[in-house]
Design a protein that fits this description.
- The complex is a heterotrimer of chains A (181), B (198) and C (237).
- With 181 residues, chain A is an all-alpha fold.
- Chain A has a single domain, classed as Arp2/3 complex 21 kDa subunit ARPC3.
- With 198 residues, chain B is mostly helical.
- Chain B has two domains: 108 residues, no CATH class; 71 residues, no CATH class.
- Chain B has eight helices and no strands.
- In chain B, α1 packs antiparallel against α5, α4 runs antiparallel to α5 and α7 runs antiparallel to α8.
- The two termini of chain C are 32 Å apart.
- Chain C is of the alpha/beta class and 237 residues long.
- Chain C has seven helices and ten strands.
- The chains are: A mainly alpha (181), B mainly alpha (198), C alpha/beta (237).
- Chains in contact: A-B, A-C, B-C.
Amino acid sequence: MERNVTQIALFAALIAALGLVPQLTLAFGVPITAQSLGVMLCGTVLGAWRGGLAALLFVGLVALGLPLLAGGRGGLGVFAGPTMGFVIGFPIAAFATGLITQRLRALPVGWAAGLGAILGGIVVLYAFGVVGMSIVLNKTLGEAFLLVAAFLPGDAIKAVLAGLITAALARARPGSVLSRA
Amino acid sequence: MISLSSPVKTRAHSWPAGAKLMALCVATVALFGLQHIVPLGLCFVAVLALYAAPGPVFLRAGLARLWGLWPFVAVLILWHWATGDLAQGVALGFRMATAVGLANLVTMTTRLSDMMAVVMWLCTPLGRHRRAIGLAMALVIRFTPIFVLKGQGLALAWRARSARRPGWRVIVPFMALALDDADHVAEALRARGGLGNL
Amino acid sequence: MLCLADVSLRIDGRDILDGISFQTSARRVGVVGRNGSGKTTLARIIAGLVVPTKGTVRLSGIDVAKDRRAALREVGILFQNPDHQIIFPTVIEEVSFGLSQLGCSKAETQMRAEEILARFGRSPWRDAAIHVLSQGQRQLVCLMSVLAMKPRLIILDEPFAGLDIPTAMHLSRVLDGIEAQLLHITHDPEVLRDYDHVIWIDAGRVAQDGPATTLLPAYQTHMAQIGDADDLAQLTG
């Protein structure tokens, strides 16, 4: 169906736009880029398959040389550098986020999305990210984890926001949160 | 939207993209087989020479892309200096910069259209889905700048009523607009014959 | 009193606006010009949302770009497309936003929001979802959100764009009744017929500045001449 393709493509564009609009700081005056939040939202709003494909499309275009990562970064160099695990993990994290959001039907959408974002957008994503970093920097997994631990609080805030945003979208446009359709 | 391939024309621009990507894979695997500071340092110098060959504009662009690695280089140097193993830290820094430099070299010398052709070729086993993939890529490229403008517009609408920087709330209408646009484009596609069975 | 002194905006080497100067305390002010002449950018600069590369905009003595807190009490802006400016899912939340950002207490915010809805006879809209409203109704919600903040100057950026004739007439009647000073940006001189002071912007500069009665006919004649010349090669962008 055409709508699947356009939703996947346009959400990939949304992830890119969230990294390129400088005015989007998120919480309490701390400038956190909204991009990884966009990856979580792919999952919470579009669900596991479409969300995962949207993130995959996004990552694929970055690999092709488009400056879609926050700050206008991109190209194959990203996949050879220390953050490669995170970038490669985007699609799987979005998929996991969507899967959990969908499975937690019994919970209100905000809570389901928030939990999905934590388990998918943080636990799964960081698993990939830490492995990637340990390879590139030649450190043990534990050491690599220490290096990225500083970003956990920011990402925890993003997971909470993913829940709030998904809940607000469900109110603004009932039926548009496809992970619950 | 402008891709990251360099406008400075090099001989590498005319080499087939698939071959460059294969060479990159082989080179990176070989690179990760090296351990010591001297061979890795030589590799890094070799990569710099490759960047310098097409001229100063190309070199500066390439170095600008490597600059983002400096916090990680700093971490490596400090870490290994603290563990009394500085040579290894520097060696790892060389390895990282060389790997990233080689990868970016391929990106800078390959046109987006050539890269997309490789992707489409890799997708041949997917048969009829190929058309959808090609379309999806084009849609992302078309809509990212549009969404950036809409995002800036929403940020402006926020600042028209608040002295504070836009908060997370702005993302809600942003997503609603994206979903609406997805519906409109789907409609336009169907009006032009649709994508068949997907 | 709105004062623009030598306002210029240069982006990437291009002069979007060049040396715009005028002042006015007329109750109804119009800004006309072709699409791409810079009038929308000018609207944003007067609202204090874009900082000019040169020059200042002062409203009642306040520099709107520098002193945002004071500016928000003085000037409001209605953008062209309500879908690009409505942030909240329900009418009451959208109308309340500006009030809470001005520092009103929860009680005062609620009171003033409901007051503006009542003033327009739209109290039943209180908990309505934005997405069930028509384009014209959404534009009204945006207007109410701005009016609730009681600014002295309201900038209207092509507010009738895309509205059908009856809706445009309704909105026009609503705007006529507003006490605040209105600055109406448009490419269509017809809507400015009863206005006091009009400024004509052409290619980023002030082409003419005067009473509507003399300026608008001159503008219309000039536009018709360009139209007759039949030269689509003249891109305004």
